[in-house]
Fold each of these.
Amino acid sequence: MSNRLNSFTHIEPTAVIRAKKKYGTPLYLYDEKLIIEKCRALLSMPHAYGLVVRYAMKANSNRALLRCITEQGIEIDASSLNEVRRAGMAGIGMEKIILTTQEVPEGEDRKELELMMLRGLKYNVCSLRQLYLIGDFARHNNIDLSIRVHPGIGSGESASRNTGDKYSCFGIHMSDIKKALDYAKEKGIRFNQVHVHIGSGADPEMWRQNIDLELGIVEKYFPDAETVSFGGGLKEARMPGETTADLADLGGYANKQIEGFYEKTGRKLKMEVEPGTYIVANSGYAVTKVIDKKRTGENGFNFIVLDGGMEINARPLMYGSQHPFYVISKDGRLLFSEFSEGAARDFSAVVVGKCCETGDSQCLDSQGNIVPRIIGEPDIGDIVVIGGVGAYCASMTPFNYNSHTQAPEVLYTKDGELKLIRAAQTLEQLIANEI
Ligand SMILES: Cc1ncc(COP(=O)(O)O)c(C=O)c1O
């Protein structure tokens, strides 16, 4: 078997063992070189009249990753005031950030939002209420706004990640666009950007359909728009057999349609995309140790108990997502890789964590059923690495459930060094705010 975990990573099993020895398990390990390669691929997307790529920092907000990504020339999509603050604390200028949020900042938050906007933060209004509350301020300060439109169609890897159909409420619905336009006209506000994000892990065909739909919306309703954002949602294959979004194809299509738009209207639109998953998902590995093995009787299943589960990666529980497994012996031999066709697949098991929750399983389908997976059988003390956990894991898991403490994050740098980028949470930190 190859000396890397798979063909796209730069991480070798020996680096995993080094990380385990230095920081213990469970831990998150990120492949810096892969993140950089992903950023470069996005920045080379075909485009007609300019391209801005933003990183949806909700996917993983660690400062080291924000810096690595923005150093490549990528800007930021923030989904809360706190994310804007975190990006600011990481040294990222407000003019490089767009805020697309469900929040309606009030009081001190509102004052801070205004200061941020004066320093260049772009505000993407997502509801009529947000628009009405910011309208006077925007006009008095000559600040153009971006508007998130709810297109009425969406697509995602699961229903809960579809952000464009009638079951989700992100953006100003098409049926309310006239109200937004009337208000903007009355106040003298310009929408210089139109934004749509149809969902996470979207079907490429729907992504293409949205390009056409959105350009139609820009043409019909937004004469001042200079930029069109197609959102994130670019699919990244985590498992063998899944297909990653084809950037050349999607960018090529967007390019063609934006050129067509110019021929029709004389307007040269700049394009924005704001992926999170595509940039970081496959860079992340959860390094865990086998702490127990059990079986639920003759007609039951084998269980592999890891020292990290839903509090490291809740995506199987939330979405029924499948993540690849790797088994590494204590001395650093790669015993099983989901991506290796030659790997021994001699064992069927349910891989679980240490939480008191049947759903603390890495082997769930989209209905929440336990479905055993075929892997190489690990021994107690062996390492099981869970791949594809760079996005929506460290930033999204219920990490303190059962009073477990948050796992450390470690960067495998482009020079092959291990760098701690967030220390493990201590029990004292977990209870620090209790009174
Ligand atoms: C507004 C917006 N933009 C971008 C993204 C990033 O999506 P993804 O990680 O699928 O690329 C999201 C995630 O849901 C989002 O809500």
Note: The chain has a mean pLDDT of 96.
Amino acid sequence: MVNSKMYELGTHKSTIRTIFEFGRKRAAEMGEDSVFDFSLGNPNVPTPDFIRDTAIDILKNGVPSEVHGYTVAPGKPEAREAVARSINKRFGINYSGKNIFFTAGAAAAITISFKALCEEGDEFITFAPFFPEYRCFVESVGGKLVVVPARPVDWQIDFEAFESLLTPHTKAVIVNSPNNPSGAIYSEETITRLAKILSAKEKEYGHPIFIISDEPYRELDYNGFTVPYIPKYYHNTLVCYSYSKSFSLAGERIGYIVVPDEVADFGEVFGAIAGAARVLTHVNAPSLWQLVISRTAERPSDISTYVKNGKLLYDGLKAAGFTCVQPQGAFYLFPKALEEDDYAFCERAKKYGLLLVPGTDFGCPGYFRAAYCIKTETIERSLPLFQQLAEEYR
Ligand SMILES: Cc1ncc(COP(=O)(O)O)c(C=O)c1O
């Protein structure tokens, strides 16, 4: 009667959902202070005042039909121009509004991009560990997700494995840097090598291969690391950006796709993006938030809490004996679990109220993710518990 795949997707309890429910039960029984929820990537830094003030001003003083009405599908011209200007200023590029397509966050941006590009038999390559939604997004448009095994020593790309998985069916490579869940940023060296390999393969196969750069964490770079702007290194790049994390606007659903002039047949790609957005019933990104972004696109993000939390948790876990690559961005730590079975490890951590996500969910067994977009004080109180957990394995 119903589509069984959709039913499965809609009713299957994700690990994060199960962890969340465990946390609520424990909080009801033992109090909120006994729960250390590292499971969710929901920003805890408040939305900046300048964003709230701008939204309030627009709501109070804007023309209602402009604030709340439909917009043209790619977005309001002034918002598209504002985003293009801000990118040009930062990265020395020469975009205009025509290069920007507003979306409801990065999830919509990547799904629309997959749909726009995917033809029968196409493969989309990504690198473990990866954002689990890639699989259902790619499969929903009829594509096949191909996963390159992880390189845990620094979470950069295992190029040998990558090259062995490229085929004439490869339509695009999904890059997520800063990365969820590893916190790694792909270095300039990594991006340059990736671009070189793809350029050679485009020639060999005689068709374009795209990079889809999923960038909801672009502004969250620290510890001396910066995120290379991939379109400067590779011509066939689509950038999928979001304000969910940078301005703590995850529930408002606002982001965009950049389609650079350099992509193979700009008009065709932009047209397919508009078509994909149409059949996915995207209609337009939220009008109010397009207006807010048109006034705030050049404002910086406040990442000080994430820098502080990342250091605190990294130092604390290292002191407790965990093996972990220091995060370079985003707000995730991805340490090695203290036993091979990451599910068993995360189960054991629950005894202490430590809610962690097994690495298997991100295509990387033997590790776990701890999201540190939570109160600093909660992290401070959790450190002795990580110590006790580690003691159990000595
Ligand atoms: C890697 C990655 N891509 C995309 C998304 C979706 O972001 P948005 O809220 O902008 O749709 C997330 C959200 O956590 C993410 O971690």
Note: The first helix runs from residue 4 to 11.
